[in-house]
Amino acid sequence: MTDDTNRPVSFWAWGWEDRLPTDEDRRELRTQIEGLLGFPERPLLDLPGLEDVELPAPRIEGPDHATTSQSRRARAQHTYGKAYRDLVRGFHGDYANAPDVVARPENESEVADLLAWATEANVAVVPFGGGTSVVGGVECEGDGYAGVCSLDVREMDRVLEVDEHSRAARIQAGARGPEIREQLAEHGLQLRHYPQSYEFSTLGGWIATRAGGHFATRYTHIDDFVESVRAVTPSGTLETRRLPASGAGPDPNRFLLGSEGAFGVITEAWVRVQPRPPYRSRATVRFDDYWDGVAATREIVQARLYPANCRLLDANEAMLNELAFDGSSLLVLGFESTDHPVEDEMARALELADEHGGTCPDGPTHRDLNAEAASGEGDRDSSTEGKWRNAFFEGPYRYNALVSMGVLVDTFETAVTWDQFPALHEAVQERVGAAMDEVCGTGFLSCRFTHVYEDGPAPYYTLLAPAEVGRELEQWREVKRAASDTLEEFGATITHHHAVGRVHREHYHREVPDGYLDAVRSMKRTLDPAGVMNPGALL
Amino acid sequence: MTDDTNRPVSFWAWGWEDRLPTDEDRRELRTQIEGLLGFPERPLLDLPGLEDVELPAPRIEGPDHATTSQSRRARAQHTYGKAYRDLVRGFHGDYANAPDVVARPENESEVADLLAWATEANVAVVPFGGGTSVVGGVECEGDGYAGVCSLDVREMDRVLEVDEHSRAARIQAGARGPEIREQLAEHGLQLRHYPQSYEFSTLGGWIATRAGGHFATRYTHIDDFVESVRAVTPSGTLETRRLPASGAGPDPNRFLLGSEGAFGVITEAWVRVQPRPPYRSRATVRFDDYWDGVAATREIVQARLYPANCRLLDANEAMLNELAFDGSSLLVLGFESTDHPVEDEMARALELADEHGGTCPDGPTHRDLNAEAASGEGDRDSSTEGKWRNAFFEGPYRYNALVSMGVLVDTFETAVTWDQFPALHEAVQERVGAAMDEVCGTGFLSCRFTHVYEDGPAPYYTLLAPAEVGRELEQWREVKRAASDTLEEFGATITHHHAVGRVHREHYHREVPDGYLDAVRSMKRTLDPAGVMNPGALL
User: Does the entry feature the keyword Glycosyltransferase, yes or no (chains A, B) (predicted)?
Assistant: First the structure.
């Protein structure tokens, strides 16, 4: 627990306060942006200070029995997630919706007490893990409520039990990525779920939002790792049985996976873990034509080779990640195994890529980490895949600088069947591009596949445009609407792994059948009769 | 549609009427049973005739607008599923709970009309596919209702659309296994979902019950093939969006998967399909000690080799299937691929088996069906795996004979984590064995793994005991209770893929959290306000 004590996280920006961009960082980035994307000259705005933030007076106090805070820092830090619109609002000092109180329960019984208090006092409760939502999952206006309590689960951050035989671990919901890694390492095990928010996001948040992780195939979402879940709802505590599988009725874990705090607070889960995979093969394949890359990717996944990494980067994405500047698309391929070399799988994938004109000039690299450790070799993670991974986790930090220099930056992601993807992709390029041109004068859009399925890819779009300082949210809304409407029209999902939150709620309600939505609402009424759980998220 | 016209299915027994056991079949089987299992002399009872069945007078008629039948055959055929207790009741002419009317809607709008009529007239509706439930999923007493309507979806049996690019097909719920196979074959595709009931069971039934299929790993349940589902509920029609994946809220497909007709009638689904896999490797590994086999199986699945078949048969199961008579356990391994040879996966699996003392005297067999077809070779499916498969689909026919000679025969299946399996298995042997001894004087129990997961196996138990004719159900209940109670006590699931129905309902209600059950009930009230959908199943 160091995020607001020993090493404070920023109240407005992504990540640690000591990693906020320096003026030198920002000047360098500005040069790149202007040079690479041809944006008009960008300003360097002053970074905000906590002392300048104006917070509304709290409407309520927390209950006596709970560990709560109403400090300026705690309330500011719990006001938003980490989407572009969150950073913009925080940057400009808009904290009108700060929670009235932040609770940090240390155990499940304190969670239950808090929910009982909230139900009684008509206080909206917003479960809060890493606070890394990019869909408005952790903000709440509190209209119609006596106040808003942000319920931060970060005090519950322990690995409680490890079953090495079945390769599973019982972990508290507030444990974030690195904490899980460190505690499991004592048992020689890993979860290998690495969302981009890994440094800060928590197991509970991953489950509540059906987070996407490391693996491009097979184990794409946290869903695939969950054996059982415990959650505290206003109507009582739920715990599903720890099972490798079951066919008994609709899967109870699936009701909590994606529930986004609307039913209750996830407190712990049994998840499947594994040893570190020593066998790894990596390659980067170059395609002159993006659609050849798409065809190759489809064949590789339909061949059931189960690549751990299978990220097709379009030319803009390759450029943005400084991996290629010649207009080619790149397929970043990775295989891994705890048990056996994966050279054959890689060879077959490269063969399929080759049939579509994909070239791999540097060839694949194969590693055996155990053998390297035994021979005293150091880590030599200099491959494209390694560069890619580092850039991946650095990405969110770059948002801080971009927001501070008037650059609109956002991502949206989806999944769609292979037959629909070409029409969708073309429409996204055209309409989101047009929206950026109209609203911002120009814009840049890139696409990568984060995950791939036998029946379709999960494309992930990144957009950048010069924003007018003070009008950013208005501009963002226009561009976002173009994106979301296009996904809906072309039969894609509003989100593959970013969740619904408040930002995607309307589109989500049109995506799922009405009868289903009514059924989910009736579930919520049963588990949360007073409707205090994260009102406005999902439902 | 031939099951009660051109080639009638038996009104009481498994399968086609023309495949009912002859006296010669039964004498042969009796000799085997008495010799192999040491049961006391078994009687050969007369098989029942439809003309002897007494049906209660129907309490209601179907609506004018629908295709319905109240014929003796239709009502008798729709009274039960195909569990031991169903065959026994049918054999002895107990048709007190025959549905009053059998409806065979030809399209979705007729289904909707039927549900509207049932809601209005307070008629219980029991969705009926192949009628192969082994958990009382398709029977209904109708207490508190004006009558019972069996809603048979078998007229809706077409593959409606195929997306070869995304490898998916839209199929009507009433299509049974062979019908799906034939229609997809025109496109060079297969579903490769082969439950033991494959010859008769339907896609809709598979989805409603979360049926288990062909693959021991990775694609274990029909759940893994479902892209989207359409269902008609009393409150309207639901259709989930066709998507390879989504992270938008709790997965709507998962609410219908396992819903067992309690919310409505599944009418069609998009499912993932694949070409026939030409590359296949098979092997049978012998273990002197069962627990060595268990350890090897665990390592093979944890190595993520993804065997299509990974069935560990204990000594009794190997004997029952006439594969080994020397007390050894067998691991029947199969790998398959549409894309590449699978010899390496097999070699690695055999290596892991070898480390635990597993021997494979005949070595693995590797095939390339395309190459064989090109060279004009015929099918040479004589391996243990092939024998096993044939016996697998013949299995249910044998029940007919056993019931007619006073043999109690049943199966129960579960899933449990690896760490819990030894204690569970020991308790099952002991307690179910003791129950059979006490109730039937003796008994035989065997076990195989049907599916395996990284965190645990899905053991499937078969039991045989000499029954006292006329007391079979009483005896069965005692033995079944011992089995179900043991599963519950040792943290296993009441069903891995047989579903809940009416037989497992009480244990299911104790397996899932109360709050979850309340939530499911509230969903049902929303979708089926009059409570006419399959009352007593699941809920």
Answer: no
Which of B163, B415, B513 has its CB closest to that of A243? Answer: B415
Do residues A214 and A193 touch, judged by C-beta distance below 8 A? yes
The verdict on residue A486 lying in a domain is no
B196 domain-assigned: yes
Amino acid identity of B238?
A: L
Query: Shortest CB distance from B340 goes to which of A167, A251, A303?
Result: A303
pLDDT of residue A391: 75
CB < 8 Å to B209, chain A: 247
Nearest to A515 among B165, B235, B500 (CB): B235
**Chain B residues whose beta carbon lies within 8 Å of the beta carbon of residue A196:** none
Strand partners, B272: B168
Mean pLDDT by 10 residues, chain B (539 residues): 68 96 94 91 96 95 94 97 98 96 98 98 98 97 96 98 98 98 98 96 98 95 98 98 98 98 98 97 98 98 98 96 93 97 98 98 95 76 64 88 97 98 98 98 98 98 97 98 98 98 98 97 98 97
In this prediction, residue A375 carries a pLDDT of 87
Structure tokens at A383: 């491959």
Could you give the strand order of the β-sheet that contains B407-413, starting from the edge strand earlier in sequence?
B365-368, B279-287, B329-337, B309-313, B444-453, B456-466, B407-413
Are A26 and A132 found together in one domain?
Answer: yes
Residue B307 to residue B496: CA distance in whole angstroms: 19
Q: Over A111-125, what HEC string results?
A: HHHHHHHHHHHCEEE
Total structural domains within chain B: 2
Residue B123 pLDDT: 98
- In a shared domain, residues B203 and B303: no
Structure confidence at residue B352 (pLDDT): 98
- Tell me how far apart the alpha carbons of residues A504 and A473 are, in angstroms, rounded to a whole number: 16
What is the pairing mode between strands A123-128 and A147-152? parallel
Asked which of A119, A152, A185 is the last residue of a domain, the reply is A152
DSSP B221: B
Q: Which of A239, A263, A512, A521 to mutate to test the interface with B (most CBs of B within 10 A)?
A: A512
- The CATH number for A209's domain is 3.30.465.10
Are A348 and B339 a contacting pair at CB < 8 A?
Answer: yes
Distance CA(A15)–CA(A19), nearest Å, equals 7
Residues B311 and B355 both lie in one domain = yes
> How far apart, in Å, are the Cα atoms of A74 and each of A121, A173, A529, B115?
22, 20, 29, 54
Cross-chain Cβ contact B250/A247 below 8 Å: no
* Residue ranges of chain A with per-residue pLDDT less than 50: 1-4
Contact B515 A260 (CB under 8 A): no
**Cβ contact B463:B433 at 8 Å:** no
pLDDT (0 to 100) of residue A394: 85
| Residue at A479 is within a domain | no
In a domain, A332, yes or no: yes
Instruction: Write out pLDDT tens, residues A163-205.
Output: 999 999 999 999 999 999 999 999 999 999 999 999 999 999 9
Choosing among A134, A166, A263, A539, which should be mutated to test the B contact, i.e. which has the most B CBs within 10 A?
A166
Q: Which residues of B touch A512 (CB under 8 A)?
A: 240-241, 248-249, 252
Q: Are residues A130 and A77 in the same domain?
A: yes
Q: Which of A236, A246, A305 sits opposite B493 (nearest CB)?
A: A246
Chain B nearest-CA distance from A206, in A, is: 11
Structural domain range at position A326:
279-368
Domain closes at, from B272, B290, B305: B272
DSSP 8-state symbol, A200: T
Residues B322 and B237 in one domain: no
Q: Do A515 and B258 touch (CB under 8 A)?
A: no
Please report the pLDDT score of residue A4 as a whole number: 45
- Count other Cβ atoms within 10 Å, centred on residue A2: 10
Nearest to A130 by CA among A205, A226, A214: A205
In a shared domain, residues B290 and B263: no
